[in-house]
């Protein structure tokens, strides 16, 4: 079932002198399962948008349809709570919200709030820990405070997964992690999507993360959605990148630079492997081209 937004609008403190525009008239259809990235400058409405997708905010105008939930300004708060459990939200720096004495209790917090039996809670905690690559026997009794940054983030993710959401929203999932921790979280997100067919919506400022993960990209500006489309199409369109003030991922920049120098490279995708294949293919094509028509390869430094 697609996620459908119709003229979705949110004005904070609507009808008061403090009224502040959050998002305006957003029409969007997300066909699942998919990984969607939301980008945009600070204050552009990214957080306001995602908070409608898990029932933390209600529209002041327009509507949002997620599975059986149709939400508009009339929707009662109790109805929103069901959505909150179905669509998991992982906040920026979620590890700052680990507050229980043990890893087990932290992950069990969400399922316990769902009034499940303790045996069901235990089953979910172990499954969620396994899903995020944490060894349940090794760390369940440890304090979350004793874990590394990457492990803490996995615990926070497991806490959301233990509620068995069908969709997940991640706010800056790799921010503050070292390169190894970042790579591990990217892999985890990819495997959640592929193994569980989970729709994942993420906010990110990291274009390399987006190039590696996202099928689609939404660009927000001043509360409005100014672009929605395939991430590959956006990153390969230099005019749009310039228009939106987006710096392309490193691999894509390399492709643009090589193309500008006449290398016949036509990348079909965006992840590192695809870009590398495209560059190698371009090199082969260049070698096959008769020398009179061959574009000039970039000269190495120090070469004539
Ligand atoms: N609780 C609030 N009360 C009033 N205005 C708000 C509130 N939250 C956000 N806004 C306003 O709504 C607009 C969109 O904010 P939002 O937080 O959605 O942007 P964002 O793109 O997520 O920004 P950032 O990247 O800084 O998190 C901004 O003008 C902001 O000032």
Give structural notes:
The protein has 2 domains: 3-244, P-loop containing nucleotide triphosphate hydrolases (Rossmann fold); 250-288, no CATH class. The strands form 2 sheets. The protein has a 6-stranded mixed beta sheet, with helices on both faces. Strands 2-1-4-5 form a 4-stranded antiparallel beta sheet, with helices on one face. With 304 residues, it is an alpha/beta fold. The chain contains 12 helices and 10 strands. Helix 4 packs across helix 6 (149-161) and helix 6 (149-161) runs parallel beside helix 7. The protein has helices spanning 46-53, 77-86, 103-113, 118-131, 136-139, 149-161, 179-196, 207-213, 231-235, 238-244, 250-260, 272-288; strands at 3-12, 20-30, 35-40, 61-66, 69-71, 87-90, 167-171, 199-203, 216-221, 224-230. The longest helix is centred in the middle third of the chain and has 18 residues, at 179-196. It starts with a strand and ends in a 16-residue tail after the last helix. The protein binds adenosine-5'-triphosphate. Residues 12, 20, 22, 40, 42-48 line the site of adenosine-5'-triphosphate.
Summary of the model, kept short:
By secondary structure, the protein is an alpha/beta fold. The protein has helices spanning 46-53, 77-86, 103-113, 118-131, 136-139, 149-161, 179-196, 207-213, 231-235, 238-244, 250-260, 272-288; strands at residues 3-12, 20-30, 35-40, 61-66, 69-71, 87-90, 167-171, 199-203, 216-221, 224-230. Adenosine-5'-triphosphate binds at residues 12, 20, 22, 40, 42-48.
Short key terms for the protein model shown above:
alpha/beta, 12 helices, 2 domains, four-stranded antiparallel β-sheet, Energy-coupling factor transporter ATP-binding protein EcfA2, binds adenosine-5'-triphosphate, Rossmann fold, 304 residues, six-stranded mixed β-sheet, globular
């Amino acid at each position: 079932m697609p996620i459908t937004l119709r003229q979705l609008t949110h004005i904070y403190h609507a009808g008061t002198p403090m009224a502040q525009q959050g998002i305006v008239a957003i029409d969007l259809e997300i066909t699942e399962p998919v990984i969607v990235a939301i980008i945009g400058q600070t204050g552009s409405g990214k957080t306001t948008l995602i908070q409608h997708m898990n029932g933390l905010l209600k529209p002041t105008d327009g509507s949002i349809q997620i599975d059986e939930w149709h939400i508009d300004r009339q929707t009662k708060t109790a109805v929103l709570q069901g959505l909150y459990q179905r669509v998991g939200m992982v906040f920026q720096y979620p590890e700052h919200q680990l507050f229980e004495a043990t890893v087990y209790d932290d992950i069990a917090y969400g399922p316990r709030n769902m009034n499940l039996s303790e045996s069901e809670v235990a089953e979910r905690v172990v499954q969620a820990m396994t899903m995020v690559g944490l060894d349940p026997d090794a760390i369940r009794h440890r304090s979350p405070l004793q874990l590394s940054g990457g492990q803490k983030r996995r615990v926070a993710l497991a806490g959301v997964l233990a509620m068995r959401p069908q969709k997940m929203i991640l706010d800056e999932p790799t921010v503050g992690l070292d390169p190894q921790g970042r790579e591990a979280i990217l892999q985890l997100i990819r495997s959640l999507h592929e193994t569980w067919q989970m729709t994942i919506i993420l906010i990110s400022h990291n274009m390399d993360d987006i190039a590696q993960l996202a099928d689609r990209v939404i660009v927000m500006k001043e509360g409005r959605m100014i672009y929605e489309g395939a991430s590959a199409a956006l990153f390969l369109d230099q005019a749009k990148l310039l228009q939106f003030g987006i710096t392309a991922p490193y691999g894509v920049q390399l492709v643009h630079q090589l193309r500008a120098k006449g290398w016949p490279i036509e990348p079909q995708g965006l992840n590192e492997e695809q870009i590398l294949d495209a560059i190698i293919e371009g090199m082969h094509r260049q070698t096959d081209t008769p020398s009179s028509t061959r574009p000039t390869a970039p000269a190495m430094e120090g070469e004539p």
